[in-house]
Amino acid sequence: MAETKSLIPPAAAPHVLIFPIPAQGHINSMLKLAELLCLSGINVTFVNTQQNHSRLLSFADVQSRFGQFPGFCFETIPDGVSASISSPEDLLTDLFDRLKNVIKPGFRELLTSNRLNSDARGPVSCIIADGVLGFAIDVAEDLGIPCISFRTISACCVWIFFCTQKLVENGDIPFKDEDMDRLITSVPEMESFLRCRDLPSLYRTKDVSSPSLDFVNTETLYSGRAAAHLINTFDDIEAPILSQLRSYWPYLYTIGPLNALLDNLRSRTSSLPVSSNASLYAEDRSCMSWLDRQPEKSVVYVSFGSIAMVSREQWFEIWYGLVNSSYRFLWVRRPDSLITKDDEESHIQAELVDATKERGYTVDWAPQEEVLNHPAVGGFFTHSGWNSTLESMVAGVPMVCWPYLGDQQINSRYVSEVWKIGLDMKDNCNRVTVENLIRDMMNDKREELMQSTGKIAKMARKSVSPDGSSDRNYEALLEFIRKSC
Ligand code: UDP
Questions:
Q1: Does 279 sit in the ligand 1 pocket, CB within 6 Å?
Q2: Are 8 and 71 in contact (CB under 8 A)?
Q3: Model confidence, pTM
Q4: Selected catalytic residue, list 15, 53, 130, 236
Q5: Which of 388, 399, 401, 402 to mutate to test the pocket of ligand 1 (most atoms within 8 A of CB)?
Q6: Where is the signal peptide (predicted)?
Q7: Contact, 107 vs 139, CB < 8 A?
Q8: CA distance 32 to 40
Q9: Residue of minimum CA distance from atom 7 in ligand 1
C-alpha cells in the first residue's frame, strides 16, 4: 500500500534549479528528475526557453502533473527560435548559435536578477544543468552555488566525446566514406565493435575543427568542473564505460532508467495518479484503444522521436517495408518530420493506404511509454534516441534501430552488438531491409532477442528497486543536495 506523503516541502528544504537544453528528449528526462525531487521534498525551479514553455503548458496534463507540487515552479528565458530548419546540420548550428547568443545571457540574467531572490522557497541552493551547458557552471561558480552536470544521453556516447582528441591524434577521424566499416581502436572498451559508422553523427565531418565537434569536445571537458555528474543510465549495462568515466568524474551518479525510478518512487511515496510524459506535442490517445483490439505482441510500434526528419524517399521506403512485412504497425508520423511536403498525396499508392487501413494505425504523437508497455506491442522500430532506448529496455521490447543523429549511432551499435536486444539498420533505409529486419525482430530472430531483452528489463527494474544501484545513487544525490543547502 502506498504511503501518502505531504507534497509541501519542509521548511528550509533545498531549492534546486534544473536547466535542460531546449529539446524534447532533454526536457523530458529532466522533468522526470524534477518530479522525483519534488516527491522527495525538494523545492524545484525548472527553467525552459519561452517557446517550449508555452508548448508544454498548452497541455493540461503537464499543468496538473506539476500543479500538484507546491514546491515546484517553472521559469522561462528567451530562446531566439528560428523560423525554418530543414536539415540536421541546420538544427545543430541553430542550437549552438542560440545557446551562445540568447540562452546563455538569458540564464545569467535570470540567476543574477532579483527574479529568483524574492522566491518564498528560499534562494537557489544547487543547480542541475544539462551536461552541455558549461556556462551554467560559470554562473553557479560566480554565485557560490554548486552545479551538478546532467547527461541525458548514454554513457557510451559521453565516453566517445571524452575521447575526441584521441580520435584525432590516432587519425581515426576524419574518415572517408569508404572507410565506414573500419574498426576504431582509440576508444577504450569499444575496440572490438566500434566502426567509423557507429561514431556519433557529429564525427561524420571532413573538418575535425568543425563547430559541432568543437562544441561537444569543449563542453565534455569543461563539465569536469561540475561538483558532481548525473547520467540517465544504469550500472549493469554500461559498467566498463562508467568505470572509465568515474576515473575522471569521481562523483558520478547513475540514476536511470529515470522513467522506471520515477514510477517506483511514485508508487512508494504517494497515491498520485501516474502521469504521462511531458510532451511538446499533443498526445493522440486513440491509438491505445486501437492497440486494445490487436492480438498480443502482434504490433510493431514505429517512432523516430521528436527531432528526426525523413525525406519523402525514406518515408516511402519505410512505409513499403512496414506494409510488405505483413505485420501490424502503429506509426507515429510527427507532422513536422517530413522534409519535403509538396504534392505529397498524389504519390501515395492505393495499396499502401489500403494496407494501412487494414493493419496499421498512424498518429501525430503517441503516449510512448504506455504504448511500449501495452501487451499488443511486440517490437519497436526506433531512431535509438536514448530515452526511447531506455523506455524500450524497461518494457522488454526488442528494437529495429534506424539512428538519425547525435548519440543514436552509438546507441544502436550497443543495442545490436553489446546488449543484443535489437537489430541495427544504420545507413540503410530501403524497403527490403525494413521488411527483413522487422520479420527478424518479430519472428526469425525473436527467440534470441527476447532472451537478452528479458534479462536487460530485469536488470533495469532491479537497478531502480530499493537498494538497487540507481536507487542508492539517487539517495546519494539527495544527500549531496541537502548538504549543499
Ligand atoms: N515520445 C512520446 N511520444 C511519441 C514519440 C516520442 O512520448 O510519439 C517521447 C518518448 O517517450 C521519449 C521522447 O519523446 O521519452 C523522445 O526522446 P528520445 O531521447 O528517444 O529522442 P529525441 O526526441 O531526443 O530524438
A1: yes
A2: yes
A3: 0.94
A4: 130
A5: 388
A6: none
A7: yes
A8: 12
A9: 368
